[in-house]
## 1
Amino acid sequence: LLKLDYRIQHILIDEFQDTSELQIQLLRCLTAGWQDDDGRTLFMVGDPMQSIYRFRKAEVSLFLQAANNQLSLPMVEPLSLQRNFRSSPTITHWINCAFAQILPKQSDPLSSAIAYTQADSACSHSGSVHLYQQEGEDNVLEAQAILAIVQQALLKKQHIGILARTRKHLHTIMPILEEANIAFRAINILPLYTQPEVRTLRALTRALLHPADRLSWAALLRAPCCGLNNQQLFELLSPQQDDLTVWDILHDEKRLQSLDADSLARINHIKQALTPCVHAIARMPIRPCIESAWHRLGMPQLLQGSAHTNVETVLSLLENLEAEYVRGFIHFKHFDSQLEKLYAAPDNSPEAEQVELLTIHGAKGLQWDVVILPGMGKTGSNSDAPLLAFTEAPMHHQGLFLLSPKPQLRSQDSLYQFIRSIEKAKEEHELRRQLYVACTRAESELHMLGHLSEKS
């Protein structure tokens, strides 16, 4: 620490509104020996109205405390910036009017409430704000309305961002765009395991490592590298013989007699491609063996664009998982659970540059000519009451950590309910700030689509 302290002359922290308590502790350590007149400087910049990362332990109350010099850091002078260099005057004016009502009137460190600060547009281009209200929730109707907006914007050669609070809100929109032959870039939206090339690679891996896995072998024989249809698969694999693996069946001349010449040619291709890999699977690391089988099957020639990136991601995952165990072994439940956490690579073709789909969290710091916000009427899922409720209450120069177990009797839950009320207030305030972040991504056009529920 002293060695670092001796060398550091200036510290610049960007996105300070998303700082965690642990990061503040580090900053305190780095600046503990600073003197007021030694020439060293601390500069922190951020927008507390854009603090939306509580799931990463960010606490916007730290921003408020730092501005008031309550964090035991070097003395700072707060400066407020109010000019908007992104949005048109029309959008900026609408945001000022709307969010003066949506965000709290006053800031409150305890509940992470951030009062709205008016902005002045530094731009001169034209702009517009549109609200599309449905009578009831209809995802398909909403997606079709979004398609019309996108088509109109593409005629103007505008850059379009479709932003949603959750990935599920975009799943109905993507097929509608595909049917209209509109290329788009979905950033961290499509689960990797749903992609056809990944499903084939998974089937190949399981088939080679577990010869008795008939389902994986059937998926491999059905895949483009072989292409047997359902009738051919039925003739080949039925009736099921427990004493024969699919690999044995592929070498059983009697079982192959009923197949036509085309099916036999496809099966011979599989046998010629995989024979060296079947013999080598227990003698070499998994990744090079699977990668060799993948190339011998001719799969790279059948893929385009981001599919190659998806395959590389899965191969790297296999390599990492094998390193956790012994060579030649993969824990497939662990493999599948890790695969479910990954997302398909976005379409990086030039045609897909104009339309981007991503979550509001992923849109942070970005901007588009046209911003479309779907699913405005949808609500998040209600979380169950946790067994342990905890929160951090800001105090002068340190935080007060509050913790309470879930009580058995209603009459005993005063502290528990107090902590839960604080956390729910923080969640509500951050949800409103998410909307602010989404709306302020727009340069020229802002389109919001949603419905009002019967309870609204």
Note: The mean pLDDT is 89.
## 2
Amino acid sequence: TLLIVLFFLLLASVYSNELRGWKFIAIFAAWQFVQFLMTIGIAHDAAHNCYTQDRKTNRRIMFLFDFLGINSEHWIQNHVHSHHAVPNVPELDSAIESFSLVRLHPHTKSTWIHRYQHYYMILIYSLVTIFQIYFLEFISFANNLVGFHHEDGKNRSAIVWLLINKLWVLSYTLIVPLWILGNPRMEIIGAWILGHLICGVALGIIFQTTHLHESTSFVELNSDGKLSDPFSIHILKTTSEFSVNNPIVTWIAGGLNLHITHHLFPNITQMHLPALSKIVRQTAREFDLPYQSYSFFGALLSHLRCLKKLGSLPSHPSLKSA
């Protein structure tokens, strides 16, 4: 409720046509950041059917994804059915599927530029929300990538819907402000870009630092096409948590800083994750199981060191002919 109230208050401030300069830029960027918080704080729980106990209500709440520019069906396939099923498994986990500029798994092909990815990855993350909202779904749909398998006969209507959705979001966040507000155009465009840059970095840090860190394990399916470890052990080996005792970070991250707990209990709302995280930590220690947690900056530094290591590793022998 608080996020929705903030959304409309900031929306009214942006469209009031009374803000200029740094005040306008700050309010506009804050408005976009609240939209980001709505996706991970409300729509994300609804995608896991845990925002409410009613599946139909959760499905209606997921319309927030579409309202904010992310196709809800694509999110379910990409995040719930792909990433949560096999985290850190190449060609199956969409979260580590990447383009040639970055390398997120040692069993993917290495190129010279990857040696520097720990320097430019934050810049890559800053562009994530622009890419995800306006390009990713078209690319995924066109290439039938992991997490977006379309059905024959539905291609045209799906593309039309994607176009309408993107035009809608671009209209109320950029085109209409440019049309009706008296602010200089570059001020509006700059505020729009800044908001996306902030949201992109936040999204990248929340989702990527918890799977790509110095202690993470990188696995492939065994000869039977199954995980070598029980699923709960696989999660402990491939995932981490950060700022576990910081309620402010937990609220901003929608509980996703408690990422091990979220993967073990994906159908539990973020409200209960802090208490569950303590139980997970205690249980892991009792049974001498791997459990990794960091401070916020510790998680970021460990992530960058992991990227540096991934960038320096040679290509897997099976990929040298690729």
Note: The CA atoms of residues 108 and 315 lie 7 Å apart.
